[in-house]
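Objective 1b: paired records.
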Amino acid sequence: MKKTLIAVAALAATGAFAQNVTVIGTVDATYRNSTQDYNNGTSGGQSALGQNGSGTTNFTLIGTEDLGGGLKAIFNTEFDFVASGQVEGPTGGGQLFVGLEGAFGSVKLGKPNSPTLTVQGSRSAFGTKDGGRIGVMDARSSYTSSGSSNMGQSVTRTSGSILYTSPSFSGFSFQLDYAPGAKADTTISANIAESSAITDIGAFYANGPIAAGVTRYTESAISGGASEKTLTSYYGSYNFGVAKLTLGGHQYKQEVTATAGTADNAGYGAAVDVPLSPALTLNTHFVKVDDKSTADVDRTTAAIGLNYALSKRTSTYVRYVSEKADNATTAAQIKTGSEESLAIQGDSPVHENAVQ
């Protein structure tokens, strides 16, 4: 009973403190047609109407209150919508945090976006979506020999974390995201699950046409379970006006344990965004993943697309993604894959999470 009263009090405080609440969101509907060629000589594919090919379909509440002296209280509650079979609905996958913001920067507690997400979303012309972080093979099959994504490991956000973001110093800023994890004591309760401690540190620069960032993500090992993971990600971009060029890469490693295999890969890539008109933009992305594990299944992904802005809040795009895997050895492994996407996306006037 005591815990219930505490939870209700916290909820009431959250609803009362916000002077300004902004309602934002995105709806993304995508038609995809994909094909795969397997190592045993067979092929397959599917056509489906889905979502999130360009942005994350979500509904978000953002609140702020001026506390005086340049200090603000902030919160963000984001409901992501995903489809599972014929069932669609909100999940807890989006951002969820409360915090303080001032001249010192900001502190967010809960599940804020990670520094590595910023780098991964900035490395590609397509952000973290199709043709960017997520590839045809990862999205359509269980093929993961060269890593869980084109960028080593997909890192979005971690529950139970605290994120500090510094103010900008002549274009430079840094972030520290830390989640302490949990240590289970099965002699007391078998219902308490052990979880890894996670640290994500990032340094960023943005000034005029130049932007860059580097992050270091570390996930600790837990007894009898997940192994230690390390991921270094980086990118740099320059906007020439007629085109924007982005270069980026990563180094990823997961140690082998009794319950987890070894992952060791490095990747590099380039993206080019060309504004063909005020409304029409050509986007291209190329990435190469070098698998350094025993499997040695390297992967190359190339993507090209057009995005047309129907208005400030609504756009449509068409995209083609092609992937090739080297040294595929088992019959079930995919050697080549491709996908064509056609979608329309609508945003609210303000949307701070478009990179997801």
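Objective 1b, second protein:
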Amino acid sequence: MNAPLPQGEEKTRAVTAMFDAIAPRYDLVNRIITFRMDVGWRKRTVSDLALSRRSIVLDLASGTGDLSRELRARDLEAISVDLSEGMLRADRSGVPRVLANALTLPIKDGDVDGATSGFGLRNFSELPGFFAELARVVRIGGRVALLEVATPDNPLMRWGHSIYFGKVVPVIGGLLSDGAAYRYLPRSVAYLPDPDELVAMFRAAGFPDARRTLLSGGIAQLLTGTRR
């Protein structure tokens, strides 16, 4: 618990191995630890993407394909992209699957209409490069919606959330899946920059209207932006 968090390529390898390990029970644990709130968060993510039918959307760090399923349900052409083979094998969304690093996508410039990511930001090896890659592959006028965990602003809410996220979630994860992975989960929030810095980084990459919306009292956040 006190060891430094991995960085760079070491982080990429560690995160990939971790998600390979937890893939079989990833959906079950997510539903339990979020009290199924994650289902509503994903619906909100796709809704705020605000793209027309048949638009092509990359679901980055797609995991088992929850967001891809929601995209498909909204008649959008989703492509599931993840660096974890275990997660892609567990993907039952029925959309095309691609094994790739979100920082070096095998996609031509401006070739997609939009992109989503669910809880992936803190797991990328670096965020400026990720935002730059989004700006490269998303066409002008395209949309991006990124769902991530957050720390509540309200002091009482923040205290309660820290107890649950830092103490209870690792126990649940250890009982149902991989204990080490779910001990990493609360620590990984440290990878996220200050909210204002995060939005500024997103805007600077080519999404000047980027905004941040807090969900469920501030325990989750949604970043949205239009490629300009």
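The mean pLDDT is 96. The chain has one domain: 8-226.
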